[in-house]
Amino acid sequence: MGFFILLRKVTRFGPWPATAGRGIGVPPSDPGPEAGERTDLFLIYPPWAVLEDRAMLQNCLPPLGLLSVAAHAESSGYRVHVMDVHAERADEQQLRERLRRHRPRFVGMTVLTNMCLPAHKIARICKEEVPDCVVVAGGVHAEALPERMLRNSAIDCVVRGDGEKAMIEIMTGSAFSTILGLSYVDAGSVQHNAPRPVNMDLDEFPFPAYHLVNFANYFPAVGTYRNLPAINMLMTRGCPGRCTFCNSARTTLRARDPKLVVKQIKLLRQDYGIRQITFYDDTFTVLKPVCLKFSELLAAENLGLTWVAFVRGDCFSEEMALAMKKAGCHQVLLGIETGSEKIAKRIGKPIDKERYRDAVRIAHDHGMEVRGSFILGNMDETWETMKETLEFAIEIDIDIFQPTISTPYPGSALYKEAVDRGLLKNKNWYEYGQGTVLVDQPQITDEEIYRFERYAFRRFYLRPRAIYRLARRITRFRHVRDYVLSAVILLFGLHRRQDKRNWECWKGLTEEDFFDREIKEPEHVRLTYELRQGNVFV
Ligand code: SF4
Predict the structure, then answer these.
(1) Is residue 292 situated within a structural domain?
(2) Residue 442 carries which DSSP code?
(3) How many domains, the chain?
(4) Closest C-alpha to 8, from 346, 488, 345
(5) Is the ipTM value over 0.85, yes or no?
(6) Which domain CATH number covers 180?
């Protein structure tokens, strides 16, 4: 009984109490522009994972893409407002009120796959409240399926690729037909303009407009932080990898000047007391000189920060580990994906297992933890190959085992294969959260994959060594709370979230509720990198 009372205490306020940082940015009582004025650009981050218990274990950090668009627009003289519906746990009524106050001329929305249905509804709400606003959708889901997004007449256009410059061109009134990387409807059919050349100079863009969000709404993922408050950052964009399950595959790699990144971190530390950073770069170590320079400069500042970053098994070395650790990196996330060589080839990530063994050893030798991410239910997966994965995770002695279920995101090669071979189970985008089996495969059942996932958690974490490691990591009460919650959700599947958010309004939606334009969908499935960098529309 006492256990359940404790559980209620730790979960009753939503994912976590809003204490991850000092309250900065826009207060909830934001009055909007002066009487008679309008906000130029109202940027919205829709709610995601509204059906997912395990979303409680993931992070909720500022939407960097949207904040970069916001910063670029502000630096061009526009009045910008950001509403993170997900982080603010806002309902339909709150969104409507905010829109009425701001009466924006333009609305920009990020659309990732599992927020796609709420995004359709949000576009409708925008047009109902401010009929003359222009609604622009961007983000990896919108750009992968522009025709499908534009079947909702509340969406005026879809931006493919980086949104900063495209948004300015839209706001300055350029004709849609002249804006590179734009998809829109003209005379009843979808027009796709040629892709925008990839912007290689990321330093041209200001740093994300963190001041437009309230840090008190954000928190890092379970197991990824030593200190608080935490924030996320990007030093690079793009990845040369070719993993079939990933939208970043083959997208152009670019980096910011490490000097400017360190300068930004200093400001975040001084102004907001930030003490932990999660780098969101697809592969932080892929550009070795950039990684080394950044680490050297950050270490020299001695800011007392800790941070975590994603690395690839074949892009990590003693030299990098030494520099990163000196600069405060305490954990690397290693995307291992599978312990089966056959499956590794199948998913386009055929990295020698020896490289992973070395990477884990190097990280441990330098005092860094390793969070290993793995995918279950890959194409051609069997019970045996999943067992190889689990055994490999145990053998190489990672600290945190993070399995997910293979998810065919639109724009990935996996989605293309699943559609082309008729294996895709459904397009209920709510389920695209890495916890649901969405590809039919004759050699394995859904139940086997779910059963193996539960078994793998128990087998990995209910070992004395794993328990000892977790116990050693506890340095604050918040860590205890994280572990209780993780155990309840992942090991025992006991928890059903007491959802204090009034999110019924974002649930139970279907695309058909919003499709009011007759638009033919393309015959061929397109890949994200082709949509951004090649002309797949000619
Ligand atoms: S999974 Fe990682 S390495 Fe592979 S394409 Fe995506 S970002 Fe690159």
Answers:
(1) yes
(2) T
(3) 2
(4) 488
(5) yes
(6) 3.40.50.2300
Hey, which of 242, 311, 312 would you mutate to test ligand 1's pocket, going by the most ligand atoms within 8 Å of its Cβ? Answer: 312
Cα–Cα distance, 205 to 48 (Å, whole number): 27
Report the alpha-carbon distance of residue 109 to residue 84 in Å, rounded. Answer: 10
Q: What is the 3-state secondary structure (H, E, C) of 248-262?
A: CECEEEEECCHHHHH
428: tokens are 């209920």
Whether 156 and 245 map to the same domain: the answer is no
pLDDT (tens digit per residue) in 111-167: 999 999 999 999 999 999 999 999 999 999 999 999 999 999 999 999 999 999 999
Distance CA 131, CA 481 (A): 46
pLDDT digits (tens, 9 = 90+) for 200-215: 999 999 999 999 999 8
Structure tokens at 47: 């709610």
Nearest CA among 407, 402, 450 for reference residue 431: 407
Largest CA distance in the chain: 66
Ligand 1: residues within 6 Å at CB? 239, 241, 243, 246, 248-249, 282-283, 312, 335, 349
Tens of pLDDT along 27-43? Answer: 455 778 888 899 999 99
Q: The domain that contains 241 carries what CATH number?
A: 3.80.30.20
